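Hey team,

Filing this mostly as a record. A colleague (T.K.) asked me to run one chain through the structure pipeline before their review meeting, and I want the input and output archived in the tracker in case anyone asks later how it was produced. No errors, nothing strange. Just documentation.

Input sequence:
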Amino acid sequence: MRHFDLTPLYRSSVGFDQLANLMDRALSSEVGQSSYPPYNIEKTADDAYRISIAVAGFSAGDLNIEVKENALLVSARKAQTEESKTYLHRGIGTRAFERRFHLADHVRVTEASHVDGMLHIDLEREIPEALKPRRIEITGAKPASLDTDVVDAKPVN
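Output structure:
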């Protein structure tokens, strides 16, 4: 496995700690990470997103969604049925899973719905007023008055 040292990035930048941490996480994550369950991330508007996760075989009661410290955690655990079933072919995966998404600053979960075997999680980015771009007026330099720039000359000898 390759190891990249991001220390020079930390020394030459200010305020990009999260970007460096994101790169650290991406480079150190395991290659064999599970792809179950499949999911889509869709941009629905300028500041709105939707995560859709295929959760066939799970009911809304089997699913759990948590947001903690800029991390969205979606997990599911199938309730144990007491009746024993005999399957000739079992192709619908209902094994427990845990899927974690890292959320950027000021992104919040607005809604979650479970429709037709899909779990939809709607996200919205709300930038605070203090962080929005604003225009700064440029003023010209004030002309210096002649009285303050004149030095009285006196003879030395």
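Quick notes for T.K.: The chain has a mean pLDDT of 80. The radius of gyration is 29 Å.
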